Amino acid sequence: MSKVLVITASPRGERSVSRALTTNFAQNWAKHHPDATVLLRDLGHHPVPHVTEPWVIGASAPPEAQTPESKAAIAVSDQLVDEFLGAERYVFGIPMYNFNIPSTFKAYTDQIVRAGRTFAVGPNGYEGLVKGKKALFITSSGGSYPLGSPMAAYNFQEPYLRTIFGFVGVTDVQFVVADGMAQGEDAAKLSREKAEAALKELATSW
Ligand SMILES: Cc1cc2nc3c(=O)[nH]c(=O)nc-3n(C[C@H](O)[C@H](O)[C@H](O)COP(=O)(O)O)c2cc1C
């Protein structure tokens, strides 16, 4: 039975575009995949901790250097990594903040990108350990960053997400983008409808 981890990163509730698109997609996808388990994690309202010095000790120091604080800090990461590795598919709903991901989602990636757990360092360099997974990124932004336009260079969000998830081995990725949310009512409506149509199609084909 396949497991899907659905993560929302907007701090907004009903007004959030990425949250609405993501949760609607998850519900619709689940209808078409009744055998699958859907697990929701709401980073926007329940952020995970940032990396701290005890966390670094927990992740990399020998057993004799561990403290109660380092064990507690890394236990949180271990749990998030277990959850991440336990899923076969990921659906991420992420707003663009300052041309990148919100810090809540960055804190999450810092927790799950772990040497020895999600990537390895070998004689041939880095190797992603998260194999055979699929990720769908549903993003929203006020502006638009079409490839080939001067604004494309401002989009650090999609390249970053492709890079960091590719680094751990998740290379089968798709993006559905609801952009232009601050470019007037008509443009926003059109963009949102386009994203909804793409997600409707993916509910059966993904
Ligand atoms: C703190 C903050 C930073 C933002 N930075 C950008 C940005 O750099 N580029 C952009 O196009 N939109 C930016 N926006 C607009 C959001 O991406 C847009 O409102 C999006 O719909 C938010 O996602 P949500 O509706 O899921 O909350 C920003 C919004 C906030 C609140």
Describe the structure.
The chain is an alpha/beta fold. The protein has one domain (3-205): Flavodoxin domain (Rossmann fold), CATH 3.40.50. The protein is 41% helix and 20% strand. The protein has six helices and seven strands; from the N terminus they run E-H-E-H-H-E-H-E-E-E-H-E-H. The strands form two sheets. The chain has a five-stranded parallel sheet, with helices on both faces. A hairpin with a 2-residue loop joins strand 4 and strand 5 (125-128). The chain starts with a strand and ends with a helix. The relative contact order is 0.16. The model has no long low-confidence stretch (mean pLDDT 97). Flavin mononucleotide binds next to helix 1.
Features:
binds flavin mononucleotide; alpha/beta; two-stranded antiparallel sheet; five-stranded parallel beta sheet; single chain; Rossmann fold; 7 strands; 6 helices
